[in-house]
Write a structure and sequence with these properties.
GIY-YIG endonuclease
Length: 380
């Protein structure tokens, strides 16, 4: 016997089970303030509440999800309030119940829209999505031609995604060039891109594909001054750009040396402001209760050979600090994998950066998965 969540009935057809969907309108109620949320689902109220809790725990700013974080998941319960005969009716009745109960009114409910916006893929769309996951090329792909900045032919690619992968460029950057929306060549994308036609030219005129090849960025005096100050630091030793610190036991024995406040904080778990108070005021320790005194902190010697920071090390640390990781989850909330930045995610799932950012921010699933900006607990 087959048992699945929210199945109304099933029957055996050529040794396979045909699952009948359940079209319902559900209501979620906050027992603390009696505010409600109305939704439509083919999976039932309990399943949808679990999904809302998952999104709330992963930072979604939808009104209902903010309330779940504020009041806690135990303050909410879900119930089906109407069963509908088909998908289209379900959309209509969702709009009816939202209007009837006034759940778009912030004083009464958490709905941000009037409902009726659930869409369903037809069989053709489902096949295209399935082909993407199976690695089958789309019949609608358009080949693109790559030229260098002088207009000389370089290569041909079956689609934008293949071109982006081969050149480590975002799909969006190539698409802008194809649509002649870019002012000039960029450092990352110093190419001309053209949709393939029957006759492929061996050379093209760059001026026809960029709006202004002679465009120059005008830098303010303040910017130039700040840049020059930074450039003074970016020559070999980077010690001058940080504050070295030394960690001592309470009896004065040296424990460790750190090249920066941040490095010391990460290694010991003590906040940067606290360490800074110690190194800026040698009497600060006397203001701390004895049972809370753990270490003595002092400024390190910037000429100490052990504390030298190279230019390469700083650039590596900066790259790591500025990489925004994205976690992938399945519909049950189970962690799948993590991606080091939007670009790597887009390359693997064949998506445009703007598109995936939109789905991350809305909390909606994309290509069968839910994506969230990484938190410390994401993959635990």
């Amino acid at each position: 016997m087959v048992t699945l969540l929210n199945i109304l009935r099933y029957k055996n057809v050529t040794n396979k089970y045909l699952i009948m969907e359940k079209y319902t309108i559900y209501k979620i109620t906050n027992v603390v303030n009696n505010k409600i949320y109305i939704g439509a689902s083919t999976n039932g109220a309990d399943f949808r509440l679990k999904q809302h809790i998952f999104k709330a725990n992963n930072g979604s700013n939808y009104p209902l999800h903010q309330a779940i974080r504020e009041y806690g998941k135990d303050a909410f319960y879900a119930e089906d309030i109407e069963e509908c005969p088909d998908f289209e009716t379900m959309n209509i009745r969702e709009t009816y119940w939202i209007a009837q109960l006034g759940s778009t009114n912030p004083s009464k409910g958490y709905n941000a829209r009037c409902g009726g916006g659930i869409h369903r893929h037809d069989d053709q769309a489902k096949k295209k999505i399935g082909d993407v996951h199976r690695g089958i090329p789309s019949e609608n792909r358009i080949s693109v031609i790559q030229y260098d900045r002088d207009g000389n032919y370089i290569a041909e690619y079956d689609c934008i995604t293949d071109a982006a992968k081969a050149n480590n460029i975002s799909n969006h950057s190539i698409l802008r060039a194809l649509n002649k929306q870019s002012l000039r060549f960029s450092r990352k994308n110093p190419y001309i891109w053209v949709y393939k036609t029957e006759n492929v030219a061996t050379k093209v005129n760059p001026a026809e594909y960029y709006k202004n090849l002679n465009y120059q960025v005008i830098q303010s005096d303040a910017f130039v001054k700040a840049r020059n100050e930074i450039n003074k630091l970016l020559v070999g030793d980077m010690t001058a750009s940080s504050t070295p610190v030394e960690q001592y036991r309470l009896d004065g024995v040296l424990i460790a040396k750190f090249r920066s406040l941040s490095e010391a904080s990460k290694a010991t778990g003590i906040s940067v402001p606290t360490i800074r108070k110690y190194i800026n005021d040698e009497n600060y320790i006397n203001t701390v209760a004895e049972n809370r005194r753990k270490y003595i902190w002092k400024k390190g010697n910037p000429n100490d050979a052990e504390l030298k920071i190279t230019h390469e090390e700083l650039l590596k640390k900066a790259a790591e600090a500025n990489t925004i990781y994205i976690d992938q989850f399945d519909y049950t909330g189970k962690f799948v994998k993590s991606f080091a930045g939007i670009k790597k995610l887009c390359a693997e799932i064949h998506a445009d950066g703007r598109t995936i950012k939109k789905y991350i921010e809305s909390g909606r699933p994309y290509k069968g998965y839910i994506y969230q900006y990484k938190t410390e607990q994401s993959n635990m």
